[in-house]
Amino acid sequence: MQTPQQLHQRYQQVRKLSEQICSPLAVEDYQIQAIIETSPPKWHLAHVSWFFETFLLKPHHKDYQVFHPQYEMLFNSYYETVGALHPRPKRGLLARPTIDEIYAYRHAVDEAMEAFFDVLENCPDEKLLFFIELGLNHEQQHQELLLMDIKYNFSVNPLKPAYRNDLANHRIDTTSVLQWHEQEAGLYEIGDSSNNFAYDNESPRHRHYLADFSLANRLVTNGEYLAFMEDKGYQRSELWLADGWQKNEQQPLYWQQDGQDYLEMTLGGLRALNPDEPVCHISYYEADAYARWAGKRLPTEAEIEVVLADKAIVGNFFDQDILHPQAAGADGQWYGDLWAWTSTAYHPYPGFKPLEGSAGEYNGKFMCNQMVLRGGCCVTSQDHMRASYRNFFYPHDRWQFSGIRLADK
Amino acid sequence: MQTPQQLHQRYQQVRKLSEQICSPLAVEDYQIQAIIETSPPKWHLAHVSWFFETFLLKPHHKDYQVFHPQYEMLFNSYYETVGALHPRPKRGLLARPTIDEIYAYRHAVDEAMEAFFDVLENCPDEKLLFFIELGLNHEQQHQELLLMDIKYNFSVNPLKPAYRNDLANHRIDTTSVLQWHEQEAGLYEIGDSSNNFAYDNESPRHRHYLADFSLANRLVTNGEYLAFMEDKGYQRSELWLADGWQKNEQQPLYWQQDGQDYLEMTLGGLRALNPDEPVCHISYYEADAYARWAGKRLPTEAEIEVVLADKAIVGNFFDQDILHPQAAGADGQWYGDLWAWTSTAYHPYPGFKPLEGSAGEYNGKFMCNQMVLRGGCCVTSQDHMRASYRNFFYPHDRWQFSGIRLADK
Amino acid sequence: MQTPQQLHQRYQQVRKLSEQICSPLAVEDYQIQAIIETSPPKWHLAHVSWFFETFLLKPHHKDYQVFHPQYEMLFNSYYETVGALHPRPKRGLLARPTIDEIYAYRHAVDEAMEAFFDVLENCPDEKLLFFIELGLNHEQQHQELLLMDIKYNFSVNPLKPAYRNDLANHRIDTTSVLQWHEQEAGLYEIGDSSNNFAYDNESPRHRHYLADFSLANRLVTNGEYLAFMEDKGYQRSELWLADGWQKNEQQPLYWQQDGQDYLEMTLGGLRALNPDEPVCHISYYEADAYARWAGKRLPTEAEIEVVLADKAIVGNFFDQDILHPQAAGADGQWYGDLWAWTSTAYHPYPGFKPLEGSAGEYNGKFMCNQMVLRGGCCVTSQDHMRASYRNFFYPHDRWQFSGIRLADK
Amino acid sequence: MQTPQQLHQRYQQVRKLSEQICSPLAVEDYQIQAIIETSPPKWHLAHVSWFFETFLLKPHHKDYQVFHPQYEMLFNSYYETVGALHPRPKRGLLARPTIDEIYAYRHAVDEAMEAFFDVLENCPDEKLLFFIELGLNHEQQHQELLLMDIKYNFSVNPLKPAYRNDLANHRIDTTSVLQWHEQEAGLYEIGDSSNNFAYDNESPRHRHYLADFSLANRLVTNGEYLAFMEDKGYQRSELWLADGWQKNEQQPLYWQQDGQDYLEMTLGGLRALNPDEPVCHISYYEADAYARWAGKRLPTEAEIEVVLADKAIVGNFFDQDILHPQAAGADGQWYGDLWAWTSTAYHPYPGFKPLEGSAGEYNGKFMCNQMVLRGGCCVTSQDHMRASYRNFFYPHDRWQFSGIRLADK
User: Fold this and answer.
1) ipTM above 0.85, yes or no
2) Strands D269-272, D261-266: parallel, antiparallel or unpaired by DSSP?
């Protein structure tokens, strides 16, 4: 658990980062919601502030004056127990409040939080500190969503604009040969066991039996995926889950054919596809079909966690400022680059207890119909990652930075 | 026909007015497409420039350099013969070009048009002058659409912002008693007969037999419409066309209940409903049901034209800067305030010939499934109006400034 | 007006014919509703009986015992003022009542009607006799719908079954050369003027001015329509109404390619397309596009009525037992074969008054969004036809026996 | 493994039973597909015969003459590798083949299978015998589907017909008090371990760690579920998974309010709801919300299997001819009555290998987005049940005989 002082500093860093992420955007870019699953950048900026206002300032900060009476409804994402919600599909229609008004809202919340930290530093309250930490982790998740959503929004524009033209590019020229990590069978424990922050869905730590298995030390590359496509992988029903076959996808989300070759939309604009980089923005169905074609399978979430628990949390994260997956080096890829689809449906761990009150809606109510992904990606902040972290998306979702890590046995 | 010099001056006025209409907008407001039928204000601004670029500058202006190669596709509304089109439902997703870029596009077109006028003033070409006049009338139509679309976009925002707080308000306190204009039966001529500009759909002028009829000298008011509602007009199937009954509307588009009373969304924001003002933003189905309930009927387009042809073109137009229908004075309401639904389906006049080439797509291809409206409204420019003018919308459309004028016999 | 005795005899004939039309059906065939627009044959059989029960027996026949309390709801088509309706899209889910029960219902109604005729023959009541005549005309319309719907139902079955294998086939080998009937301009009267039965929508007879025009003496043939297709008629946007272009049809409803040739689904099963027969089962959009391609236009309903009024009501009707349009002979085709699309939207005639009470829902409430067709077809009973008859369908409808008659000038 | 002789006898029994299940149906009832998820009874009867024809007779029976060339396509359910399929949503439109033709098809297949058994009894082929057993288990699954689908089809008919009026009714008057089976933590094995037939999805048997848990000895009753409803269970968002909350259900599928009370649609028609009988035809979302409200949880599939493995396979099955769940007696309810929703998403067991060839499509490709249910129900044949049996439905599905068994700890 962090001290109030540490948390205060972290608050300032995290809040600032959200605005930095948005700084390359034109006012118009803040407004777009290209599909229901995404939100306009301005909405993200307001919603993460709403979180602090709703769960900390309003109930716990003496004399706090609500910034605007309708923001509670406008910027509530999915907390039914908080009250009415503006319908998700209509977030892109909110021209007002303007982005200037939203920044004013952010700054009013930040100012009130400064005063609130003064109180907490004198008189720490563990529960409130936890909520602040939850709010910061929440904002870090939305930083990742911001970049995913911006990428999607830019991709549907025929002009194919770049979000940034100055991205770092530590490109490793060639992907290293895939190596298999071998793990013995046994009764393992998974779930959070640290004293640090973790979401409720990572608890309780519990026993889980695993047969022996092998896990790839890197992600599947574009070149390997092209071989699947050339072998008519998208046309062979026997490789596909029934629900995936119905989707009738023909290539990863951001690829577009260019004569014999492929271009790929990135946060740096449209680029030639690099066969050594990991294949990204694929659905669970595509990941699963590829694994079946390759004679392998997708790992379970427990298998990945057990292996990751022994690895250092290093890799291609947001902090590298590349914002695109990179070819694996000699040490493989364990964290970062792309969230790896697992074959495990998102479910409560045995004995799971959601947080009390409205915060209990944070995770638990989504434990159905989604699949777990593990390991973080190139738009995840490094200090947001841990071995027990469970991300989750619907099997058909493709706009997140998802990739394929194979397992065997 | 106007001289090149007159047209040149008119060009400058009309082009400037579009920008004036948008001047109260925030950048964010330019971006919104709240329903498929509407377009973002920025798209309107670009499209009307596209019209001059596509039909005049590109084919007829020597050395004209295309402003941007993809704008032809992005800002083509529905001219299939011009080439590919950006899909209409996705206009609101075009964050780029930004509004600054769109103004740059407008100004580049205007600059090239200045040079083009220099040529034309020396060497007038009647066909090109006609196309300029068409482009200006086209832009005037889009000025009306801009205000309709802005009103709709603002109305879906729970904050109910006002487009302008400084609108003129020459409110006449009480609606005058309805009087009936009596017209004798006879073989009339309808359609354009002037030497001035008119759309192709107003020609050819042709004979049309009318039995004798009466036409109301003013529009139906909110108060009269409330009586229909209080008499369960929306619940009585016998008053409704079958297709309208399916729509299951319960009140005019912009009304919202406020205890016992009603508020109405206007371009000046949410206001108490004024019972003396004409009821507006109703569908053809609502207009028709009201007329049936009142024991009257809607007029045909020929009936309205025959009567309007003898009236001065004065009334509550855009030029009055009220931007909302007003109570009728002692002289009634013949032009302006609200487009009156007619019972006539939009169809080609006998012997109708569309314009040649892509301009032939302007009107003719919409002559199915829509109903004609007549008389102009409070967001129509006065110098855009004439007795033979045919506006048209789908029977279920409600976001245009539409109202009810009754006929009898 | 027919005497009670004449009507009695006609009642027996019409009621028997409905059952004869269904006699080739298997029990399973009675059950199918392949699209929302159609109804299962068993539903038609019940609904036409419901009409007599609801509008005559229940209100006017002393001591009549309702056959089944829920039939009023189950077999009400669209009479909102009668009461609740079983939803139209779910008619095909009514396995019960069985077809045997529905025939029992028919026969119970017939028996009660026999007794009712006894009363009427002694004591004629003009209003009731009119309602019986309306019910018989209603049943004749449903006989036509039965054959349209059966054809559609059979066509969606990959086995392409034939409704009948014993249809008459007086095929005329070659279509005669098209001749143009010339009509002078003038102030005509249209609408019903007889003393015989006509629907309310054919009244009142009224004056209508027509410019001079030419009308084709026969329908457009498959061979002529193939020329349109070979000239890329379906791919050229400039030939199409905007709403039709969206439909993206590629050939008439019942055509299917067979190598270089076409097969056509008919009530006699799948057959080689005969180029001399009239093209059928096309939408208004297709008819309109063809006419534009051919440099002609579709006629208005008034134009057709004025010409038909002077022609004998002979042609290829249901009575010929061919149930498919035939090549035109030397005298042309004026009635029968196919309903000709007109360019007139279905609207009330000036001074139109619908029937009183629920029967007023018969026609009037459909006077929006549909187009008028004229002249009858090969599944219309000859004694159901007259010059003033107005049929109507939505412009996109294709399952009715519709064709193209050209006009010029 | 059964001998060819045993299997031959079983073939005759199973095949006969399908026809017995359909014997109360009218021809019309065979035709209905009330929702996409269901199939018309006639389609089921043909499809199970298709299975034997496609997987045994065509490839392995010398001289077998295909019954009808188009049946391969018409009655293929979802075997993409076999070839083209008639679209699932259109099964209800196949009036032809008639039910008589489908019985002729069944009997032709049975006749050929008789000859095939003659060969096999002389010369047993283990692989073919396995396929026959698979075909019989397949047909038993469809027997259950037949009854589920018939129930649904009858329920949408406003006449609420009964499938049978002569159902057995061994009603136990009062549900016994719920008792908790306590199970110790440990490393268990789950999955099929018998020498008898089991589906591929029940293998391989594998180790699975379970913490200690309690399992209810009977299902949740209607009375208990009513208490949840009276406590506003359907209106309290905090009880619901997010995807379930969207569905906005208000009561179990087959309940309908009747004043203060409820009626329930059953295979014996509409009946008063019996509070002692288990609540049935609920979605996973409803089961999960109920468990949360009750302060318990749904069991995992492993938990149920471990407990069931020690219980005798007795209970209220199809064989009891009640076809509705019954109140639990003093010994509780372990098998039969209703399939219990588990909290386990349907997934491949570690090391899962689907059957080779097209039969591999039987189970594996559905291992996504569905939840496992366990224990069989009142329309499952007793000899079709075993502890390792995995049934699966989408979380929103309600037309199967599903219920709630609680777990704790």
Assistant:
1) yes
2) antiparallel
